[in-house]
């Protein structure tokens, strides 16, 4: 006989601040509320903020399904500076002048990155080579040949263009590296670039407007948390 579901079997939407890793957030929530199982449905880098979908207790059984959902981000591409990680947390490896660009010039390049594209994961990533995450090899100065991956960019929209910064909205499939997308766009523009800021605003059916800031979550008791949990049965019914 299967045990009955509890009010804690479900999804919790957290607005992650800059700084902690996704694993740090999972660990904080698990320890604070005394949960046995907590997982997340899509990694956010430490510098990134926004929606982190957490699965609690028996909802971890649908973690892979939720992880495969498409995601939406808003970010800042900073032109003229290239880093080894493709984002602001990396080491600057090159600086190049930004050419005079018109909105039409920018749009002509962005058009090439919509739809199906091949993307090579950065060395500073959690992708594994022979069982070892690439970022650990990168720390040792090793560079490993990586296989390009096919991803899909549904939306790539300019929200604001004030050189050297381009604020973008990106909707993409699971496994897309927005920082590598920014790096590749910079290369295509002839001046290089990196991801200076990133915020996830949506993951599948979930929106960051419905998420609780992490510091607010950590002030709640187990009982106070219950109204903020999307029940597992409600998820399964959709």
Short description:
With 238 residues, the protein is an alpha+beta fold. It has helices at residues 22-33, 63-67, 103-110, 134-139, 178-189, 214-217, 222-225, 232-236, and strands at residues 10-16, 38-40, 49-56, 71-79, 81-83, 92-95, 115-119, 128-129, 132-133, 149-162, 165-172, 193-203, 206-207, 212-213, 229-231. It folds into 2 domains: 10-68 and 204-236, 2-Layer Sandwich (Pseudouridine synthase); 71-202, Pseudouridine synthase (2-Layer Sandwich), CATH 3.30.2350.
3D architecture notes:
It is elongated, with a radius of gyration of 19 Å. It folds into two domains: 10-68 and 204-236, Pseudouridine synthase (2-Layer Sandwich), CATH 3.30.2350; 71-202, Pseudouridine synthase (2-Layer Sandwich), CATH 3.30.2350. Helices cover 24% and strands 35% of the residues. The protein has helices at 22-33, 63-67, 103-110, 134-139, 178-189, 214-217, 222-225, 232-236, and strands spanning 10-16, 38-40, 49-56, 71-79, 81-83, 92-95, 115-119, 128-129, 132-133, 149-162, 165-172, 193-203, 206-207, 212-213, 229-231. It is of the alpha+beta class and 238 residues long. The chain is built from eight helices and 15 strands. The model has no long low-confidence stretch (mean pLDDT 92). The strands form three sheets. Strands 1, 2, 3, 4, 7, 10, 11, 12, 13, 14 and 15 form an eleven-stranded mixed β-sheet that branches.
């Amino acid at each position: 006989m299967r045990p009955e579901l509890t009010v804690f079997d479900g999804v919790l939407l957290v607005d992650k601040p800059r700084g902690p890793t996704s694993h740090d957030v999972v660990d904080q929530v698990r320890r604070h509320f005394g949960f046995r199982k907590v997982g997340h449905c899509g990694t956010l880098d430490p510098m990134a903020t926004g929606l982190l979908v957490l699965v609690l207790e028996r909802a971890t059984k649908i973690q892979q399904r939720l992880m495969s959902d498409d995601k939406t981000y808003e970010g800042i591409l900073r032109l003229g500076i290239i880093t080894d990680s493709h984002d602001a947390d990396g080491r600057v490896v090159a600086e190049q002048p930004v050419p005079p660009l018109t909105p039409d010039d920018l749009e002509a390049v962005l058009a090439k990155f919509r739809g199906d594209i091949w993307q090579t994961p950065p060395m500073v990533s959690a992708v594994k080579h022979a069982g070892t995450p690439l970022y650990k090899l990168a720390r040792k100065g090793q560079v490993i040949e990586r296989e390009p991956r096919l991803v899909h960019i549904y939306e790539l929209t300019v929200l604001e263009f004030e050189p050297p910064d381009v604020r973008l909205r990106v909707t993409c499939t699971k496994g897309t590296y927005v920082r590598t997308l920014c790096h590749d766009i910079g290369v295509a523009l002839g001046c290089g670039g990196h991801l200076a800021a990133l915020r996830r605003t949506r993951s599948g059916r979930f929106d960051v407007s419905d998420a609780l800031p992490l510091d607010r979550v950590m002030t709640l008791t187990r009982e106070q948390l219950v109204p903020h949990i999307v029940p597992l049965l409600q998820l399964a019914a959709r």
